[in-house]
Amino acid sequence: DGGITQSPKYLFRKEGQNVTLSCEQNLNHDAMYWYRQDPGQGLRLIYYSQIVNDFQKGDIAEGYSVSREKKESFPLTVTSAQKNPTAFYLCASSLQGYAGYTFGSGTRLTVV
Amino acid sequence: KNEVEQSPQNLTAQEGEFITINCSYSVGISALHWLQQHPGGGIVSLFMLSSGKKKHGRLIATINIQEKHSSLHITASHPRDSAVYICAASSGGGADGLTFGKGTHLIIQP
After folding, report:
1. Chain B residues within 8 A of A96 when measuring between CB atoms
2. Which of A27, A67, B25, B54 is the most buried (most CB within 10 A)?
3. For B21-33, how does the pLDDT look when each residue is reduced to its tens digit (9 = 90+)?
4. How many beta-carbon pairs below 8 A join chains A and B?
5. Which pLDDT score, from 0 to 100, does residue B94 have?
6. How far apart are CA A37 and CA A26, in angstroms?
7. Cβ A98–B98 below 8 Å, yes or no?
8. pLDDT of residue B90
């Protein structure tokens, strides 16, 4: 079955360490997105990519980096520059933005 | 930038009740999405609509473009409907992502 796979589901890191969250899709979708969710807040866009080897900053890109070397993969790195990295991170994809979105199951990152 | 507001934030109802969740947005959109998030965190897309009304099982979504307002209705609610329901707006074709409401936490008691 097609879908989005995010791994791991739970991740713990020490403060000051970079960490990379994985997002893989086998839907042949062009666009991929990373969102962050904090308690009591709506999801906020971190980065998005509409095509391989190209990506744009979202509303809260500071302290994060991404790459899009393959259509299927859009990994997110949470760097030590991110002031409050503990959050729930969701990856999503869409065919061309006009169609519906498919979401992954999320990664809950805790930085201690 | 679009602002998406949902109400109510929290809703507790008895099994069998008719449920309505409201969503309003501030600027024109290309589509309005209703999503469901279960306690584990994963999100499922319920509806995407740009006009009129859509129905899937006991779920009905409506949108009024002139009033910039959408509603999600659940008929004959059941405890398994308990989840967070989120509306999100896409504009300019939607390729640059969604703007989300904060969600409505729904609990259906048996």
Report:
1. 93, 95
2. B25
3. 999 998 888 889 9
4. 69
5. 60
6. 24
7. no
8. 85
